[in-house]
Amino acid sequence: MGTEPRDVLDYLIKRSVGLPRWVAAADTQDALVLLTWLWWEDRRRERALLRRGLHLGLTATELGAPLGVASRQGLRDRLDR
Protein backbone atom coordinates (compact mmCIF):
# COMPACT_ATOMS: atom_id res chain seq x y z
CA MET A 1 0.00 0.00 0.00
CA GLY A 2 2.71 2.52 0.86
CA THR A 3 2.71 5.29 3.41
CA GLU A 4 2.33 8.36 1.20
CA PRO A 5 -1.18 9.84 1.27
CA ARG A 6 -1.69 9.42 -2.48
CA ASP A 7 -0.62 5.76 -2.24
CA VAL A 8 -3.15 5.18 0.52
CA LEU A 9 -5.86 6.88 -1.53
CA ASP A 10 -5.05 4.71 -4.56
CA TYR A 11 -5.15 1.62 -2.34
CA LEU A 12 -8.54 2.54 -0.90
CA ILE A 13 -9.98 3.12 -4.37
CA LYS A 14 -8.65 -0.13 -5.84
CA ARG A 15 -9.48 -2.22 -2.79
CA SER A 16 -13.22 -1.56 -2.86
CA VAL A 17 -13.94 -4.35 -5.36
CA GLY A 18 -15.22 -7.56 -3.79
CA LEU A 19 -15.50 -6.24 -0.23
CA PRO A 20 -18.59 -6.34 1.93
CA ARG A 21 -20.73 -3.27 1.31
CA TRP A 22 -20.13 -1.79 4.78
CA VAL A 23 -16.34 -2.07 4.39
CA ALA A 24 -16.43 -0.49 0.92
CA ALA A 25 -18.64 2.30 2.30
CA ALA A 26 -16.21 3.01 5.16
CA ASP A 27 -13.27 2.96 2.73
CA THR A 28 -15.13 5.41 0.48
CA GLN A 29 -15.66 7.81 3.37
CA ASP A 30 -12.00 7.52 4.37
CA ALA A 31 -10.94 8.11 0.76
CA LEU A 32 -13.04 11.28 0.57
CA VAL A 33 -11.49 12.65 3.76
CA LEU A 34 -8.03 11.87 2.42
CA LEU A 35 -8.87 13.39 -0.97
CA THR A 36 -10.01 16.61 0.73
CA TRP A 37 -6.80 16.76 2.78
CA LEU A 38 -4.73 16.27 -0.39
CA TRP A 39 -6.67 19.00 -2.19
CA TRP A 40 -5.88 21.51 0.58
CA GLU A 41 -2.25 20.36 0.65
CA ASP A 42 -2.03 21.00 -3.11
CA ARG A 43 -3.48 24.50 -2.60
CA ARG A 44 -0.83 25.23 0.08
CA ARG A 45 1.93 24.10 -2.27
CA GLU A 46 0.50 26.13 -5.14
CA ARG A 47 0.39 29.24 -2.97
CA ALA A 48 3.98 28.73 -1.86
CA LEU A 49 5.12 28.34 -5.48
CA LEU A 50 3.21 31.43 -6.59
CA ARG A 51 4.71 33.49 -3.77
CA ARG A 52 8.18 32.19 -4.64
CA GLY A 53 7.62 33.09 -8.29
CA LEU A 54 6.56 36.62 -7.39
CA HIS A 55 9.58 36.96 -5.10
CA LEU A 56 11.81 35.84 -7.98
CA GLY A 57 10.35 38.50 -10.26
CA LEU A 58 8.08 36.41 -12.47
CA THR A 59 5.08 38.27 -13.85
CA ALA A 60 1.47 37.43 -13.12
CA THR A 61 1.14 36.30 -16.74
CA GLU A 62 4.08 33.92 -16.44
CA LEU A 63 2.83 32.48 -13.17
CA GLY A 64 -0.82 32.30 -14.16
CA ALA A 65 -0.38 30.69 -17.59
CA PRO A 66 0.13 27.10 -16.36
CA LEU A 67 -2.90 27.50 -14.07
CA GLY A 68 -5.20 29.01 -16.70
CA VAL A 69 -5.26 32.36 -14.91
CA ALA A 70 -5.01 35.11 -17.50
CA SER A 71 -5.01 38.31 -15.47
CA ARG A 72 -3.07 39.91 -12.66
CA GLN A 73 -6.28 40.22 -10.63
CA GLY A 74 -7.05 36.55 -11.27
CA LEU A 75 -3.67 35.57 -9.88
CA ARG A 76 -4.15 37.87 -6.87
CA ASP A 77 -7.56 36.28 -6.24
CA ARG A 78 -6.01 32.84 -6.42
CA LEU A 79 -3.32 33.81 -3.91
CA ASP A 80 -5.87 35.36 -1.56
CA ARG A 81 -8.24 32.41 -1.32
What does this structure look like?
The mean pLDDT is 89. The longest helix has 35 residues. The chain contains 4 helices and no strands. It is elongated and about 55 Å long. The protein is 74% helix and 0% strand. The chain has 81 residues and is mainly α. The two termini are 33 Å apart.
Structural class: mainly alpha
Number of H/I helices: 4
Q: Write down the secondary-structure element order.
A: HHHH
Shape, please? elongated
**Low-pLDDT runs:** none
Main β-sheet description: none
Rg (C-alpha, Å)? 18 Å
- Quote the distance from N terminus to C terminus: 33 Å
Helix share bin: over 70%
pLDDT averaged residue by residue: 89
The strand count comes to 0
The share of residues in extended strands comes to under 5%
List the helices and strands and how they pair.
Blueprint: H1 5-15, H2 21-55, H3 60-64, H4 72-80
Helix pairs in contact: 1-2
